[in-house]
Amino acid sequence: MKNRFLKAIFVIALIFAFFASCKPKNSSNAVSGDAASKVYVAPGKYDEFYNFVSGGFSGQMSVYGLPSGRMLKVIPVFSVDPESGWGFSEETKPMLNTSHGFIPWDDAHHPEMSQTNGEVDGRWVFINGNNTPRIARLDLKRFKTAEIIELPNSAGNHSSPFITENTEYVVAGTRFGVPGDYEDGDVPINTYKENYKAHISFVKVGKEGEMDIAFQLRLPAVNFDLSHAGKGKSHGWFFFSCYNSEQANTLLEVNASQKDKDFIMAVNWKKAEEYIKDGKGKKEKAKYAHNYWDEKTHSAVSEMKEDVLVLDAMELKDICYMIPCPKSPHGCDVDPSGEYIAGSGKLAALIPVFSYTKMLAAIDKKTYEGDYNGIPVLKYDAVLHGEVQKPGLGPLHTEFDGKGNAYTTMFVSSEIVKWDIKTLKVLDRVPTYYSVGHLMIPGGDSKKPFGKYMVAYNKITKDRYLPTGPELTQSAQLYDITGDKMQLLLDFPTIGEPHYAQAAPADLIRNNGQVKFYKIEENQHPYVTKGEKESKVVRNGNQVHVYMTSTRSHFAPDNIEGIRVGDEVYFHITNLEQDWDVPHGFSVKGAKTAELLIMPGETSTLKWIPEKVGTSVFYCTDFCSALHQEMQGYVRVSPKGSATPLTYSVGTNMPAVK
Amino acid sequence: MKNRFLKAIFVIALIFAFFASCKPKNSSNAVSGDAASKVYVAPGKYDEFYNFVSGGFSGQMSVYGLPSGRMLKVIPVFSVDPESGWGFSEETKPMLNTSHGFIPWDDAHHPEMSQTNGEVDGRWVFINGNNTPRIARLDLKRFKTAEIIELPNSAGNHSSPFITENTEYVVAGTRFGVPGDYEDGDVPINTYKENYKAHISFVKVGKEGEMDIAFQLRLPAVNFDLSHAGKGKSHGWFFFSCYNSEQANTLLEVNASQKDKDFIMAVNWKKAEEYIKDGKGKKEKAKYAHNYWDEKTHSAVSEMKEDVLVLDAMELKDICYMIPCPKSPHGCDVDPSGEYIAGSGKLAALIPVFSYTKMLAAIDKKTYEGDYNGIPVLKYDAVLHGEVQKPGLGPLHTEFDGKGNAYTTMFVSSEIVKWDIKTLKVLDRVPTYYSVGHLMIPGGDSKKPFGKYMVAYNKITKDRYLPTGPELTQSAQLYDITGDKMQLLLDFPTIGEPHYAQAAPADLIRNNGQVKFYKIEENQHPYVTKGEKESKVVRNGNQVHVYMTSTRSHFAPDNIEGIRVGDEVYFHITNLEQDWDVPHGFSVKGAKTAELLIMPGETSTLKWIPEKVGTSVFYCTDFCSALHQEMQGYVRVSPKGSATPLTYSVGTNMPAVK
């Protein structure tokens, strides 16, 4: 044990020593004079690109404009959002349901846009929940989370939700080996190699985007990290990086860094489909939530699934193949042609680039060096296109500009390196501030990159912005990549952790049927109130349903009496406005919940259990008109068992004139 | 009733007609060529000003840099924040406690910086919670919420937390009349005029910033809206705008807009202090939470207060005076000299400016036009310095540049108007996009404005940015005010609702003892683990306390066995790092809570009640090193009553070598 520990420390020390010697020489802050005008978007003008950035540990997704770096919206996904009532309103609560019950948070790493023919199509963005494994789909007509599906037999859904070239599937590979959900997981942790397994989920995406787990592959308990689908000639294959091929269960920083090579696993998913068709899949018990948003009722629905189809890739020998890859690979990136697969070993000092054509030939000739827990291991040299030499230290992730160039982030040496895909020659390098993780080129992981900009998403900030105490913003850096040399244009701070991102030209999304408000006549919410005259308050036992409307600048009703302590009061507010950008907000003093932020034409529900006798108040929280401040109301709360009759009104409950 | 309704509609129609005719002629998007370079802050360079912007209905406060408009941080205040664990960790939960219990949200409107001698001093920012009335104090050494105090006898704490010139007090005036908390509030709502009252709280601020309600003034149930303290010559006075002097209880958009004039109320708080000293205050029962953050234990403490001292301003005739002000006044802004008080009647088409000197003379001579529910009403003309004629429509709020100029926002006509405080002449006007609420000049409500920039915080966005579905970002606009004419420089989107803001030169804060990390030797958290060797797991009945450490790149312990279904497991994580910007995150699969984000030297606690037999995982959520991905661990959960012994380890629980 001690020896292994010392060896690992020695390796790490070596890496850091190398780091010192390979720090780029041009690591200055120099920005040429035209950068200001290149990133400035004048008031009222539009950005060129939408940039969808994961919030990382915020659990949300944020939308930026490029090149300005301005944040246009945070879309709540996996975490509750008091601002919009996400996870607090009765309609949104089911979206955060899981097999563990309601969970108010997750860790969202990788946004991936839907594709058609390998090109970004602007319909949806998928994003993974890492902690309690899930995938969400966001609808880009409404900029709203439309669906969330949980993943059984998994923990740490990291290598997700990457996508096939016609959005046939999004995938999810477990980062942590775990006992299967329906096995007896009460086993000693140090029986990891026997009792723990990894699973990869292939989630089918329907025409309207609806998700369903088509099948899972059972695999040895390595830690899957990232993935990318083949494209063009390699369509039908999927590539996953994995580390911890040691299958260590403790102190992984040492014990999962023992081997010189881990793997990129190639999955022949067309073959897997055949096996499924041939009935080789085993239907196993499982429990996972499938939640979706119903636009007609403005409400989420949560269903619990009971089984999943599993293929054992260790038994069916020709679905998966292991390609050796130095060392603890992170990125696993397929170039626009589909021929080249770049592996980024985060503890390596070179970048291996594999050839799809050579891989097929090696599989054909069974050029194996052995097997790994039943999975054939191809010979490194047989699959290798070549290695990028001395790219820097700690390669993590590569994207492409569509002009034959690749751009790889170097975490340890804090730089981005541009290299030629075919010749593997390093063409340029720029420093990043500091410790870059992923990078993003618009369309840079598709068949048709849009190029122009590259954004580095950094992990460490330190002194880059005005200090804000111990906790600092995380940060992105925008580069112009139109010339031979990369040009730093802008540092822009982000919300949460900008883990990974996608981007698309603005017109692809803004001209694609953007919804500006919801039509009130199409509202099928069971508690909708389609006009002020229909507003009412109905008691049903200790449940009280308030059918309320909001318009500039009053609620109807705005005086309510006859509520009793301990009642379950449901305020169902229908925003009657039929114009863009006229939400109303709604809150109740002392309610143990957040506000509602109700879009025009929508109905939302706030649940309140009054605990005190007296008068409570409600008001509009979203400044809606010159008389917004007057948009308020009173609720009289009487003691339990009180005989105060239930009454409600607007404008008529005036004192008698004296 | 019908007549009053029609009259109100007629008034509103007139206003909108006038709006059409007074739209500024220069309402183009024209931005002169140097704007880009004026707002560009090159990578690695610092912004000139910190801009503290309320999140409005997000309940938080955000920190921007000016002139870049880049958001540097969101500081969680009144709302839970899954990203940082605010309101989820055991340590932070007490901060959101109230007399109603734990509340996960509020509506935060007005940040106000602490002052010394009437000048911004960079120590703290106060901000109000509107919905469940509270005031928070944020510490600018740590950029963290340090204290929250609840306000009894109140609802809708809007005119808050404005400040006296040596931070003697922050104030809070209720926006809604309510029955007192300990009165019988179960009264018909239409007895509003008899049974409902307004209260204004004077909250004493101690040397370390600690808050305590010194006294409340009981007042007729008008709706207090905004306020500002006197300064210089008018130190000792406080001014509050109020609307709904009609004391209407329903359909306020009509019924609270009946009178041509409402009031600005002048409060002689030095006089109130005398009455308190003389024992005129009545100690009344009350229940309100006082929560503060203990930096030593890295934990919040919540105490429940039981009484409050009340002065009845309707009985004690010489504390408060009403100054008539047209119409439904919002802003109530005192110029840097302390002589002039600008009232902004949101339904008015002029801006009355009152004179402090004339007010004193009028009080001295009892130049009253009568009384309002026992409060003397001064004659309008006797107090008036003059009126700004035709400033635009819907004046809301005024700040000052320290050069004799005032800048007033016009909500209805969407513009900002610059005028001369003494001559009352309009000097310039610029359009805003759209419907501006508050504006902000750095130091612009203090004795020493810093000038240079003015920011408009707008209420409506529409087409100003790339569309994002029905819900749009809210927005700010930055203007250069160094010349005679205001120059629009930049539109920047904001998070939440940018209701109001403050700003200070960067050096005032960044050179004022910024905390970069917490010293581990000063950590007095009861469950601190000061070194990895001290890490342990202790069972106490069904409570299990995990004393865990985090360092790059492992947790200790990282293998835990002997946990049982239904246990209350407390993970107390101490981040042992002692460097800036090395937080670690912590999350547990399936836990019904958010992550922890633990600053260096800090201890935070995640509570988890396992519900399933099997293996759970935890990992670091904040990318901390090249081996961050390896920073993880396993917990074995056995059935209730299981005899699996409690064990814990790091690096040693390896399988026996075969």
UniProtKB/TrEMBL annotation, chains A, B:
EC id: 1.7.2.4
Alphabetized SUPFAM superfamilies for the sequence: Cupredoxins (SSF49503), Nitrous oxide reductase, N-terminal domain (SSF50974)
Signal peptide (UniProt feature, chain positions): 1-22
Gene3D superfamilies per the UniProt record, alphabetical: Cupredoxins - blue copper proteins (2.60.40.420), YVTN repeat-like/Quinoprotein amine dehydrogenase (2.130.10.10)
Localization terms from the record: Cell envelope
InterPro entries: Copper_CuA (IPR001505), Cupredoxin (IPR008972), N2O_reductase_N (IPR011045), Nitrous_oxide_Rdtase_Sec-dep (IPR026468), Nos_propeller (IPR041114), NosZ/Cyto_c_oxidase_sub2 (IPR051403), WD40/YVTN_repeat-like_dom_sf (IPR015943)
Enzyme class: oxidoreductase
Single annotated GO MF: nitrous-oxide reductase activity
Alphabetized Pfam families for the sequence: nos_propeller (PF18764)
Keywords: Copper, Metal-binding, Oxidoreductase, Signal
Domain of life: Bacteria
NCBIfam families according to UniProt: nitrous_NosZ_Gp
Protein name: Sec-dependent nitrous-oxide reductase
Originating organism: Flavobacterium jejuense
